[in-house]
Amino acid sequence: SQQGEEDPQALSIQEGENATMNCSYKTSINNLQWYRQNSGRGLVHLILIRSNEREKHSGRLRVTLDTSKKSSSLLITASRAADTASYFCAQKSAGSNYKLTFGKGTLLTVNP
Amino acid sequence: DGGITQSPKYLFRKEGQNVTLSCEQNLNHDAMYWYRQDPGQGLRLIYYSQIVNDFQKGDIAEGYSVSREKKESFPLTVTSAQKNPTAFYLCASSILEGGRYNEQFFGPGTRLTVL
Lengths: 112, 115
Prior knowledge:
The structure holds 2 protein chains of 2 kinds. By secondary structure, chain A is an all-beta fold.
């Protein structure tokens, strides 16, 4: 399977704390994307990082990419109860124009 | 409002029946996708289409069929040949930018249950 893996599978924190989720993948990538899914809903795109980038920020989100280790991390700072959701990484493989390969996701619970 | 709509939100099917899930977008996106999501799992690609009247199989196309007669519409038919169809189905679209498709925009999903 080319599917990546998120770690941890589940994470529970208190409001105001930071949350870090990790993603590992197996093949060379063109870019890596992070998505959020609220329970029973569709996915929402959060951030895209290209293979030649090492770090990217968007509001309270910080994404890093280490292509030598085939891994990425998503940091959410100063978490809020509204951040409770599942978070997925998705890799666009080098040489593929269309296909995203999704991991199984990390379920983040932020307790008020 | 621009976006992707899927209908119905919930769908119940008896064994042996074909059912069609609707997906419409008004984003003027070229590419459209169908994914299946099982509990605790990531998304698996069923079919995708880059232009009208053309589509390709994804990783789990067996038991499914699609059509792309209009740019805005990409319906998915779950046939009786699909042995385990109970799942959450998500439609997505993306726009071609600089020769590549990047972020995907998702609809709200259809939950299909086989009775």
